[in-house]
Amino acid sequence: MEWKEITTADEWAKLLEQSAERGVVVLKHSTTCPVSSNALNEYDQYLQGNPNSAIDYVLVKVIESRPVSNQIAEDLDVKHESPQIIYVKDKQKYWTASHWAVTTEHMAAVLD
């Protein structure tokens, strides 16, 4: 399974609405941060395993798509961090982790 990059507020708004019926995991990723690079590797490892197929997986580059990143933080009432993973269901934050807590094992424990 692979993640899809979202770059617009409209894409985010649709995902947020759809989360009422299908969960979505958002990885907020900084392309300039080594910790974020590690988190992206962990995300990819989780998706190469046996990920929960009832969830959509997306990525937001926090520098390149700052307005989307900010909108996510505002809509979910979650303090922005990077890297940060957020599981959204029923139009609200269900779980979040940041920095070194973004691991394949942590994702599997929450999402599977």
TrEMBL record:
Q: Which InterPro entries match?
A: BrxC (IPR022551), Thioredoxin-like_sf (IPR036249)
Q: What is the lineage of its organism?
A: Bacteria, Bacillati, Bacillota, Bacilli, Bacillales
Identify this protein by name. Answer: Bacillithiol system redox-active protein YtxJ
